[in-house]
Amino acid sequence: MSKFEVKKLSPAVGAEVLGLDPTKKLDEEGRRELRALFDEHAVLLFRGIELDRPYQQYLAELVKGESDLSEERIAANAAIQSRFYISNKMEGAAAPFGVLMFHSDGMWSEYPFEVLSLYGEEVEPPVPPTLFASTTHAWDTLPDDLRGKVEGRSAVQVPGPENFAHRRASAGDGPLVQPKRAKAYSVTTPVAYRHPRTGRTMLFVSQQMTSHIVGFPPQESEQLLEALFAHLYSAENTWRHEWLQSDLLMWDNLAAQHARPDVRLDASTRTLRKVGWPLPPVPAEQEVQEYQRIA
After folding, report:
1. 160's torsion region: left (phi>0), alpha (psi -120 to 50) or beta?
2. Is residue 125 reached through a cis peptide bond, with omega within 30 degrees of 0 on the bond before it?
C-alpha cells in the first residue's frame, strides 16, 4: 500500500507529494517509494511542512540512495551546509539578486550536485518563482533532425553567464547574476549525457553554462544551441513553482534544470534554505566572495 498521495504537476517534470511526516524517519517501504517517485518525476514538491535542516539533509541523502542514514552522519553533513541559503535579505546568502537563466548547479564542475532542495524558511508572497525544465523528457522528445546533429557530440560547460548575456531574451528583465570565483572552471560533457543513477539519457546543455558544442564553428554552434534551448525550455517541457511559506522542493540536479526571473533586494522576503548532495570537495558556495550584475 502506498504511503503517499501523488499529484503530477506537468507532463514533463514535477509531482506534489502528500503524506510525508517530517517528525518521523521512513521505513524501508517508504524509502523505496520516495526514491522511485524522485527518479520518475525529477522534482518533488511538499507543501506547508515544518522541517529543520537535518531532516532536509536526510531526505536529500535518502533519494540519492545513500545506505547510511544514521542521525550522527546526517547531522554532521547538515552542519557543513548550515550557511547555505538563497535570499534577498539574509547577509551572506547566495544569489541575492537578479535573474538566473536555466542551469544545473555545478554543471561546469567535475563534482556537480545530484540532489538539490530548497525550503521556504521565510517567504512573503508573491515572490519570484523557480522554473524547472526536464533534461530527460527533452532528450526523449528531441526532433530527429536535432538529434542527428548532436548525437556523439560534446559540449563545454563553464560557470557563466558573463559571456552569454545575449541569451537572456527568454529569461526576463533584470540583471544576470555572476558569481566571482577563485579560478576559472570548465568541463567537457556529452550532449547526450547518461544519468549516473537512473541510466536515462539527458539533453545536457544549458543557457547559463554551456559555452559551445565541440566541432562546430562558433556561429553554427550558437545557432544549434539556440535550437536546443527552444526545445528544452518550451512550455511542454517546463514547470513553474510559485513559492509559499514552508514549501519544500527537492530535485534531481542533472535530470532537471532550474531558473528564476529577477529577484530584487528591495522586494518582499524570499529566504530559501538550501541543501545539496553529494558535497563536492570544496562546496561552490564557499569560494564565492561576491556577486556581480551583468546588464
Report:
1. left
2. no
Alpha helix (H) residue ranges in 143-283: 144-150, 218-232
Name the fold adopted by 5-280. Answer: Double-stranded beta-helix (3.60.130)
Question: What is residue 280's predicted lDDT score, i.e. its pLDDT?
Answer: 84
Residues 26-40 pLDDT 10s: 999 999 999 999 999
C-alpha cell at 7: 499529484
Banded pLDDT at 123 (limits 50, 70, 90): very high
CA atoms within 13 A on the CB side of 80: 18
Contact between residue 59 and residue 28 where contact means Cβ atoms under 8 Å apart? no
Pairing between strand 43-46 and 15-18? parallel
Q: Give me the pLDDT at residue 160, please.
A: 83
The pLDDT value given to residue 76: 97
Residue with cell 511542454: 236
Q: Which amino acid is at 20?
A: L
User: What DSSP character marks residue 225?
Assistant: H
pLDDT, one tens digit per residue, over 76-112 is 999 999 999 999 999 999 999 999 999 999 999 999 9
CB atoms within 10 A of CB 269: 15
**Strands in the chain per DSSP E:** 5-8, 15-18, 43-46, 85-87, 98-103, 115-123, 130-134, 154-157, 176-180, 187-190, 192-194, 201-203, 210-213, 238-241, 248-252, 256-263, 270-277, 290-294
